[in-house]
Amino acid sequence: QSALTQPASVSGSPGQSITISCTGTSSDVGGYNYVSWYQQHPGKAPKLMIYDVSNRPSGVSNRFSGSKSGNTASLTISGLQAEDEADYYCSSYTSSSTSVVFGGGTKLTVL
Amino acid sequence: EVQLVESGGGLVQPGGSLRLSCAASGFTFSSYWMSWVRQAPGKGLEWVANIKQDGSEKYYVDSVKGRFTISRDNAKNSLYLQMNSLRAEDTAVYYCARDRRGGYNPVFDYWGQGTLVTVSS
């Protein structure tokens, strides 16, 4: 069982917006602004999309945004495109084991 | 262009050892923390270990402490993971990743394509 809880799957149509949640505790997501999001296409290496809750690395589309409220972080993808279909993982620093933990992953399907 | 290329994976018996390597190029290797992250078949991601720029600090996930050793050779732009006393639960694709922050709070901004380690008799 993963330390952070994500929905197993979400879906949306091209052009729509979707949000993926990542729920933790006050020892991780809620206690620190150290949430990251990674995108992984099948058989490929993960790619960093968001770090420190809402920061986008250079080269990542501004259609991707991150936020946090309490113990839940969220990744929002606006203007869905077929190429966004992938698995998405959140991660957070956790004080309970002084390391980084990941969520179980969410499969995004673009209908 | 940042490139990370892992090698050294394969099939090993329980209790055996394996050494993974990661060749880095396209950036100043000696300026970055580096990490290993693994992914069991069909499962999620798990951070394994990271190492400071000069090798003076190393951190490990509890499940590999005492069995795995991370190291680096800045002259060769290479990262290593020595894995001893391997268990079935260590079976995974192992990714080498550049770490933009380091310490107990890594952020992985570039990843290799991974190398598969299978622990089975």
Describe the structure in brief.
With 111 residues, chain A is mainly β. Chain A has strands at residues 9-12, 18-23, 35-40, 47-50, 64-69, 72-77, 86-94, 99-102, 106-110. In chain A, the strands form two sheets. In chain A, strands 1, 3, 4, 7, 8 and 9 form a six-stranded mixed beta sheet that branches. A three-stranded antiparallel beta sheet of chain A has the order 2-6-5, with no helix packed on it.
How would you describe the overall organization of this protein?
- The complex is a heterodimer of chains A (111) and B (121).
- Chain A is an all-beta fold and 111 residues long.
- Helix content of chain A is 0%, strand content 45%.
- In chain A, strands 1, 3, 4, 7, 8 and 9 form a 6-stranded mixed β-sheet that branches. In chain A, strands 2-6-5 form a 3-stranded antiparallel β-sheet, with no helix packed on it.
- Chain A is globular.
- In chain B, the strands form 2 sheets. In chain B, strands 2, 4, 5, 6, 9, 10 and 11 form a 7-stranded mixed β-sheet that branches. In chain B, strands 1-3-8-7 form a 4-stranded antiparallel β-sheet, with no helix packed on it.
- In chain B, a hairpin with a 4-residue loop joins strand 7 and strand 8.
- The radius of gyration of chain B is 13 Å and the shape is globular.
- The interface between A and B is medium-sized, with 24 and 21 residues.
